[in-house]
């Protein structure tokens, strides 16, 4: 008995050959309307804010992970452990944000290409700065996210999206605490 396995690439190729085009994933879910009391435009507007936030969180997560791997110096063990705690916390932010995008009826971006197109943060490919500069760069990214969160809180409040507003407020406080911890490392 011969078992045949079909890969996603095979299915995509077959679909492209049949229709002449590759299907593009829609930005909102079918039947995405929810009885949440929000206007039809509000979930899309707020989901778009969250997509940028998700990209920022993922870029910061990746940068924190990179610094966890590559930190050196006298405080190696302490910073290695500290960065791990921070990226683990960021991982929960990523999941929470992606799930809220889905609650609002949109699809969450999930590729590196999408994240790099949506992010407001800058990457530093090919660089491995000293530990103090790593901390300063992470702090700057947290502060940038805090600024974006404050703007997004105003948008979601204006749109009367209390669920998203509550989630963003919670993330704001967590980023403020993470920034405070990073800032403490930079003080003499």
List keywords for this structure.
elongated, single chain
CATH level-four homologous superfamily name: Ferritin, core subunit, four-helix bundle
Tell me the number of structural domains.
Answer: 1
Q: Major β-sheet, in short?
A: none
Strand tally is 0
| Spans where pLDDT lies below 50 across 5 or more residues | 1-23, 29-33
Order of helices and strands: HHHHHH
Task: Give the class from helix and strand content and strand pairing.
Answer: mainly alpha
Any idea what the radius of gyration is? Answer: 20 Å
Indicate the CATH topology: Ferritin
Percent strand: under 5%
Query: What's the overall average pLDDT, rounded?
Result: 84
CATH class: Mainly Alpha
What is the second-level CATH architecture? Up-down Bundle
Termini separation comes to 71 Å
Q: Into which percent range does the helicity of residues fall?
A: 55-70%
Per the principal axes of the C-alpha atoms, what is the gross shape? Answer: elongated
Count the helices. How many?
A: 6
What secondary-structure arrangement, pairings included, does this model have?
Blueprint: H1 8-19, H2 41-70, H3 76-103, H4 112-118, H5 131-158, H6 162-186
Helix pairs in contact: 2-3, 2-4, 2-5, 3-6, 5-6
What does this structure look like?
This protein is mostly helical. The chain has a single domain, classed as Ferritin, core subunit, four-helix bundle (Ferritin, Up-down Bundle), CATH 1.20.1260.10. It is built from 6 helices and no strands. The protein has helices at residues 8-19, 41-70, 76-103, 112-118, 131-158, 162-186. The protein is elongated.
């Amino acid at each position: 008995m011969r078992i045949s396995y079909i890969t996603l690439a095979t299915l995509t190729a077959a679909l492209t050959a049949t229709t002449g085009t590759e299907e593009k994933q829609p930005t909102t879910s079918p039947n995405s309307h929810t009885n949440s009391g929000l206007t039809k435009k509000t979930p899309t507007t707020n989901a778009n804010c969250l997509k940028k936030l998700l990209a920022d969180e993922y870029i910061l997560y990746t940068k924190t992970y990179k610094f966890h791997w590559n930190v050196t110096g006298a405080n190696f063990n302490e910073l290695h452990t500290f960065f791990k705690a921070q990226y683990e916390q960021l991982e929960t932010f990523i999941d929470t944000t992606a799930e809220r995008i889905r609650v609002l009826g949109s699809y969450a971006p999930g590729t590196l290409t999408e994240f790099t197109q949506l992010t407001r943060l800058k990457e530093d490919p090919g660089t491995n700065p000293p530990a103090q500069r790593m901390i300063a760069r992470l702090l700057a990214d947290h502060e940038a996210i805090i600024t974006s969160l404050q703007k997004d809180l105003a948008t979601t409040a204006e749109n009367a999206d209390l669920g998203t507003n509550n989630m963003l407020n919670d993330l704001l406080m967590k980023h403020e605490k993470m920034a405070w911890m990073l800032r403490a490392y930079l003080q003499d």
